Amino acid sequence: MNRRNTILFPALAAIAAILFLLDLAVGSTPIRLHDVWAALTGGECEATIRDIVLKIRLTKATTAVLAGAALSASGLQMQTLFRNPLAGPYVLGVSSGASLGVAIFLLGAPLIGAGLPPVMQMLGTAGAAWIGAGIILMAVMALSRRIKDIMVILILGMMVGSAIGAVVEILQYLSNENALKSFVVWTMGSLGDITATQLQFVAPVTVAGLLISVALIKPLNLLLLGENYARTMGLDIVRSRRLIFVSTTLLAGTITAFCGPIGFIGLAVPHLARMIFASADHRTLMPASMLAGVTVMLLCDIVSKLLTLPINTITALMGIPIVIFVVVRNRSIV
């Protein structure tokens, strides 16, 4: 690790830790940082404050950490795999595919009178999101092997997203009032809807996806130089691509299933990490993107609570300037 990284990584980790504590302190009932720390460490504080911190806000803050790391890692993998600076779960329609899976499950099941217990609903939502994300990811990958033009791939991704949106609207039109309300709230994106029980499912799945991402650092570095070069270096392209599919599906699909379609984190944060660390090496870029994603998502959550706005609006306002900067800097892609 070079001298720049030995300074930046601890600094960014410290910022993330401070934001984590602030996220626990900020809310409809403001809590002093001293009391937050006491609740976390078993110190002296009121029972009500302890319950708010440990039973409500800790779950949400942990979800923000997982979502930020997951979406950033999946976005970085897609940008490297497609060799496309504007690739990401949201832009290429992967999040839309996960949304369609969730829509079919949430809106379609009531249409046929299916009633499932909470555990089956949780597994069904996640499974539907994984299937939807996986199908769209494989379709876009197949198209990218035939079509080399970056803008064509982006346009196709947006068209796929629009087509999926039309199907979802049909399901919304046909669904009953309760299912429709549940789905509309889900589409706004939220880190606070995950229960402690659901987090016990989301956390290990997300960590598994992140571990696969870390294991793919060397293949991603080789793919950055092109598939032909990677093949000459002995990389199993097919196996590496499948692992990237699995990781991206687990990360983007799981977070989308339980937090809604959160945009721009997967697209913008990898570029933010590149600018901060001035590196294209995935040994630096992968952990940097995860850590930057955690920091940005915690900051977005704090701002969304202070302004009482959906998390999606905050991530868009923070991510769009970065995307515009990338487009302007890479004029050859427009």
Describe this protein's structure:
It is a single chain. With 334 residues, the protein is mainly alpha-helical. 79% of the residues lie in helices and 0% in strands. It is built from 14 helices and no strands. The chain has helices at 3-25, 33-41, 47-81, 94-111, 118-146, 150-174, 177-187, 196-215, 217-223, 227-232, 237-259, 265-277, 282-307, 311-329. The two termini are 35 Å apart.
Short description:
The chain contains 14 helices and no strands. The chain has helices at about 5-25, 35-40, 45-80, 95-110, 120-145, 150-175, 175-185, 195-215, 215-225, 225-230, 235-260, 265-275, 280-305, 310-330.
Write the layout of secondary structure elements.
Elements: H1 3-25, H2 33-41, H3 47-81, H4 94-111, H5 118-146, H6 150-174, H7 177-187, H8 196-215, H9 217-223, H10 227-232, H11 237-259, H12 265-277, H13 282-307, H14 311-329
Helix pairs in contact: 1-3, 1-13, 2-3, 3-8, 3-11, 3-12, 3-13, 4-5, 4-6, 4-7, 4-11, 5-6, 5-11, 8-11, 12-13, 12-14, 13-14
How much of the sequence is in beta strands? under 5%
Count of separate DSSP helical elements: 14
Number of strands: 0
Major sheet description: none
| Low-confidence region ranges | none
Helix coverage percent:
over 70%
The mean pLDDT is 84
Structural class: mainly alpha
End-to-end separation in angstroms reads 35 Å
What is the ordering of alpha helices and beta strands?
HHHHHHHHHHHHHH
Radius of gyration from CA coordinates? 20 Å
Provide key terms for this protein:
334 residues, mainly alpha, 0% strand
